[in-house]
Write a structure and sequence with these properties.
The structure holds two protein chains of two kinds. Chain A contains 21 helices and two strands. By secondary structure, chain A is mainly α. Chain A has a two-stranded antiparallel sheet with strand order 1-2. In chain A, α5 (99-133) packs antiparallel against α6, α5 runs parallel beside α14 and α9 runs parallel beside α11 (346-374). Chain A starts with a helix and ends in a 7-residue tail after the last helix. In chain A, 56% of the residues are buried. The mean pLDDT of chain A is 92. Chain B is an alpha+beta fold. In chain B, the strands form three sheets. Chain B has a six-stranded mixed beta sheet. In chain B, a hairpin with a 3-residue loop joins β6 and β7 (190-195). Chain B is elongated, with a radius of gyration of 27 Å. The model of chain B is unreliable at 293-297 (pLDDT under 50). The chains are: A mainly alpha, B alpha+beta. Chains A and B meet through α5, α9, α11, α12 and α13 of A and α2, α3, β7 and β9 of B. The structure holds protoporphyrin IX containing FE and copper (II) ion. Copper (II) ion (CU) binds next to loops of chain A. Residues 288, 334, 337-338 of chain A line the site of copper (II) ion.
């Protein structure tokens, strides 16, 4: 009976170790705080109508940023715990974590950083920026987009579920390598949590990717040919095409792993004729392209940033586009470089080594294109530009170490070592993450309506740059000293100083993160002075800067006409055209996405704990929701032209008033000291005047 | 203006200082440390390290000028530089577009022309030719979480300890039993190779200098991962023979009862030796998983 009702769930599964207890307390605390806050502010309806059920890609983008931002903190905490253990656990000392716990942490860290931080930010940026860059008002399918977002949130919850409802997380490394991930070697629900977190969010990724490909191909402003689309959109297009190509493969592979675990099949097991090498192949056929899914949008961001802040057209647009296409095509045929050490023959290894090295060519072409763009430019060292300059140097090191790893004989020595760990963090932090930071800073005015504080932004940048090299420089050296990855303990005490430096580097990075949070708060406090009243704070080149900041929900009052690359720049040279307002068709909000994702989450939860009735009920629910959605004809409404005109007029008035309000000559950006002073004053004021009562 | 200039000078000085400090700190940290991959004690490790160094040098030849150009342009064309000439568009001819592709292309050709022969030469399955010495075969079974070494020619076995004579080619025949995928790695001697159930993966290595080195599991394989280490000793021929003779005196035998005991998962196992091995033990272990392709034959 109990089995029927709650499957394999039981009391022992509930959190009882200090880290699950801590995690549960933190999650429940945060949840409770938010619930109280929203209730006090009477914002539930607003939250539901304006945000949770929205189909506006800009709002969905912002929600992606928020969730991914929290996940960055969550994954960052994991990272510090990993570093701390390794700094302590040398020789006689075994650190403060058990090996099982340590392995769960680095597994969760990897899953969270790749799927819920990097992917989250990438989808956030694409959601917000791509429609604006191509002069579109919404997406090919606004509904699929909310569904994709909520499935992503479902994955986020699933990956953190073991905190709340117990059990453990997987301890297999982020790819759940077989046969380690089989029930034989990983009993318990850890791997199942991972499978369902990735399945749910993975389906979301596939849907989202299809949607963006259709949007970019079909919804561009009149006159915008493929050869005109901005480079961030190109990067996104390449990235999404790769995602559509490989994510179904991930889904299929994890499904087979699920069948092994749930139904006792033998696809990847050691016994019963299973073949674990098959899993290794399949997972990397997805896994390698995945890293390029992440980096291509960043290539796009940097291309925009270099061009705008050099006040120059990008050099050799064709080469840049060919570079991106080349990278993404080649990326499909190199997966075996992740297991040269499995023992395939020399011919196979040499082939995949060669293909991998060839990828470095289009990558180098992109870098050379950016350099040529700087030449004779008029360069402004804004923070996005700093991220770019930090990125290129760092990325060059990552590219070089990648080419070393691509040589099979060298890889036999470096595979599974900390050198490899340093390589991919160089790429993922120095390339993907910094690209995202550059993009967020660059587009922040469009998102929030005001610029970010540059002063504190610069401090954050330097913390990240210095912290990164302190944290990962030693890992390169440790790898060369023969240290493998994922060690919760080592006997060679001469490694310890390097691990300690790495930990310190991690702390410096953390300071950078704190500074970024401070930067956002400080900018918010000075939002009136930092306001972007023109919609074009950087003297931009592409269409997103032609609409006011923050962008109106219909993106463009009149759809721009395009005849060239850098359409807005050209329009500014020629003089902006007269506006004529027209009726706008807008998609209606829908809650179907939330419902379906919630049901998918429940089904996944049922699979994790073998609760059959829940699985059946949730699946039926999904079918009903999809059918209901399909029969819903009333998914659009019309915003009349007069209404648009009124809105535009009001906005212009407001902007004008604000513009006159800003005294640029006397305004100074807040520094850290000033921030601390104001913050303390505010807190004292709240306490003294008992202001929380009115909050 | 002057103030700005001194500020910049201070910044430049600061950077130089930082740079020097980093170098000094690195040198201090690395003093007396054993950087295993560049302190090769085996022929394979030696050649692998040469390949790495060659690759790095070639890459630096292109990367250093490229990065210098980048930072030089960034500095020269800063907005506040009144002397720089500006343009809003790069006037690039066909030559630039061509060289942007040609430069990395040439580097690729150079690297590929060393990588492809090296991959064949350093194929782990390839037997090492040594002057007149017959190779020593060591059968390796990865278990949870220990390494079992069987010396069929000597009829001895060891756990978490392996000894080989210097200058003799060694064929490690890797497999696994009741264990996830493992990777067998002795950094001072040469690169790693996977050990998997139901098949034999052959790794050829040869030690060049006597000494004790550490080896271990490189691929995550469960709770006992970090402790799955062994000492790899290279000794002179006569020391090796002595060692074998010594083990022959031991009364412990690796029969199936003992083997099954070893199969029970356990962590941080001390070294152990056995003076006789049940005949055909290794093949039985390999065959027990059904037939798979045998690699490396
Ligand atoms: C010049 C281009 C690159 C080359 C030649 C290259 C080469 C390689 C090779 C050969 C490996 C396998 C090493 C091993 O497992 O032994 C590897 C691993 C990896 N690379 Fe790269 N790479 C490049 C760019 C990138 C980029 C742009 C990213 C990320 C955005 C990236 C992320 C990774 C990751 C995540 C892994 C391994 C993950 C794991 O084993 O858990 N790489 N790279
Ligand atoms: Cu790869």
């Amino acid at each position: 009976m109990k089995e029927l009702l709650i499957g394999k769930l039981n009391w022992q599964a509930l959190p009882h170790e200090w880290f699950t207890l801590g995690g549960a307390a933190a999650l429940l605390g945060l949840g409770l705080f938010l619930i109280i806050l929203i209730t006090r502010l009477k914002r539930w309806k607003w939250l539901w109508k304006e945000w949770l059920t929205t189909v506006d890609p800009k709002k969905i983008g912002i929600m992606y940023f928020i969730v991914a931002g929290f996940m960055l903190l969550r994954g960052g905490l994991d990272a510090i715990m990993i570093w701390l253990q390794q700094a302590l656990s040398s020789g006689a000392s075994h650190g403060y974590l058990s090996s099982d716990h340590f392995q769960q942490i680095f597994t969760a860290h990897g899953n969270i950083m790749v799927f819920f931080v990097a992917m989250g930010f990438v989808f956030g940026l694409i959601n917000f920026i791509v429609p604006l860059q191509i002069g579109a008002r919404d997406l090919a399918s606004p509904f699929l987009n909310t569904l994709g977002f909520w499935l992503y949130v479902g994955g986020v919850l699933m990956v953190n579920m073991f905190f709340l409802l117990g059990g453990k997380y997987a301890a297999t490394g982020w790819l759940a390598v077989a046969p380690l991930s089989s029930t034989q070697f990983s009993p318990g629900v850890g791997v199942d949590y991972m499978i369902w977190a990735l399945q749910i969010s993975g389906v979301g990724t596939t849907l989202g990717a299809i949607n963006f490909i259709m949007t970019i191909l079909k919804m561009r402003a009149p006159g915008m040919k493929l050869k005109h689309i901005p480079l961030f959109t190109w990067g996104s297009l390449c990235s999404m095409i790769m995602a559509v190509t490989v994510f179904p493969l991930l889904t299929a592979t994890l499904f087979l792993l699920f069948l092994d675990r749930y139904a006792g099949m033998h696809f990847f097991t050691t016994t019963g004729g299973g073949n674990a090498m098959m899993y290794t192949n399949l997972i990397w056929m997805w896994g390698h392209p995945e890293v390029y899914v992440l980096i291509l949008p960043s290539f796009g961001v940097f291309s925009e940033v270099v061009s705008v802040f050099s006040r120059k057209r990008i050099s050799s647009y064709t080469s840049a586009v060919l570079g991106m296409i080349g990278v993404s095509t080649l990326a499909l045929s190199v997966w075996l470089h992740h297991f040269f050490t499995m023992g395939a023959g020399a011919d196979v290894n040499a082939f995949f080594g060669l293909m991998t090295m060839i990828i470095a060519v289009p990558t180098t072409v992109l870098v050379l294109t950016w350099i040529a763009t700087l030449y004779k430019g008029r360069i402004r060292f804004t923070t996005p530009m700093l991220w770019f300059l930090g990125f290129v140097g760092t990325f060059a090191v990552g590219g070089m170490t990648g080419v070393i790893l691509a040589q099979p004989p060298a890889d036999f020595q470096l595979h599974n070592s900390l050198f490899l760990v340093a390589h991919f963090h160089t790429m993922v932090i120095g390339g993907v993450l910094w690209g995202i930071f550059a993009g967020l800073t660059y587009w922040f005015p469009k998102i929030a309506g005001f610029r970010l504080n540059e002063r504190i932004g610069r401090y954050a940048f330097w913390c990240w740059l210095i912290g990164f090299w302190m944290a990962f420089g030693p890992l390169y050296i440790l790898g060369l000293m023969g240290a493998t990855r994922r060690l919760d303990h080592y006997t060679n005490s001469s490694w310890q100083p390097f691990f300690i430096v790495a930990l310190l580097g991690g702390l410096v990075i953390m300071a950078g993160v704190v500074l970024q949070i401070v930067q956002i708060i400080a900018s918010f406090m000075q939002r009136r002075q930092l306001a972007d009243t023109t919609g074009d704070p950087w003297d931009g080149r592409t269409l997103e800067w032609s609409t006011p900041s923050p962008a109106p929900f219909y993106n463009f009052a009149t759809i721009p006409k395009v005849a060239t690359r850098d359409a807005f720049w050209e329009a500014k040279q020629l003089g902006l055209p007269e506006r004529k307002y027209e009726d706008i068709h807008m998609p209606r909000n829908t809650a179907s996405g939330i419902y379906i994702a919630a049901l998918a989450f429940l089904a996944g939860f049922g699979f994790v704990w073998h609760i059959t009735w829940l699985i059946v009920a949730a699946m039926l629910g999904i079918v009903v929701c999809v059918i209901a959605r399909t029969f819903n004809e009333d998914t659009e409404y019309v915003l009349p032209a007069q209404e648009v005109e009124k809105l535009e007029h009001e906005r212009a008035q407001k902007a004008l008033a604000r513009h006159q309000d800003i005294h640029t000559d006397t305004f100074e950006e807040m520094g850290l000291r000033e921030f601390v002073r104001v913050a303390i004053k505010w807190v004292l004021d709240v306490i003294r005047n008992k202001r929380w009562r009115t909050l | 203006m002057a103030a700005k200039k001194t500020k910049r000078r201070v910044q430049v000085k600061g950077f130089l200082l930082l740079f020097v400090a980093v170098i000094v700190a690195l040198a201090a940290l690395l003093r007396g440390k054993d950087v295993a991959l560049f302190n090769a004690k085996g022929v394979i490790a030696q050649k692998e390290s040469h390949l790495m160094i060659f690759t790095v040098v070639v890459l630096l030849v292109i990367a250093v000028p490229t990065l210098m150009l980048l930072y030089f342009f960034a500095w020269k064309y800063r907005e506040s530089n009144p002397k720089a000439r500006r343009a809003t568009e790069t006037q690039h001819g066909k030559f630039l577009a061509f060289s942007v592709w040609a430069i990395p292309g040439i580097v690729l050709l150079v690297l590929a022309s060393s990588m492809i022969p090296a991959t064949h030469e350093l194929d782990p399955h390839k037997a090492i030719a040594a002057s007149g010495k017959p190779p020593l075969t060591i059968q390796v079974i990865a278990m949870r979480w220990k390494w079992l070494f069987i010396y069929p020619q000597q009829d001895i076995a060891t756990v978490n300890y392996v000894q080989v004579p210097v200058g003799t080619p060694v064929q490690f025949e890797l497999t696994a039993d009741d264990a996830p995928m493992n990777s067998f790695w002795i950094p001072h001697w040469g690169g790693q190779l996977y050990a998997m159930t139901g098949m034999v993966n052959q790794l050829n290595l040869m030690a060049t200098t006597a000494g004790d080195y550490s080896g271990g599991a490189a691929e995550i394989n469960g709770e006992g991962f970090a402790g799955m280490k062994f000492t790899a000793r290279a000794s002179l021929d006569q020391d090796f023979d002595q060692w074998v003779l010594g083990i022959r005196q031991s009364s412990d035998v690796l029969d199936s009862a003992q083997y099954n005991k070893l199969l029970t998962p356990s962590q941080n196992n001390p070294a152990a030796v056995y003076s006789g091995v049940q005949s055909d033990l290794y093949n039985t272990v390999v065959m027990k998983y059904g037939s798979h392709d045998h690699m490396g034959h």
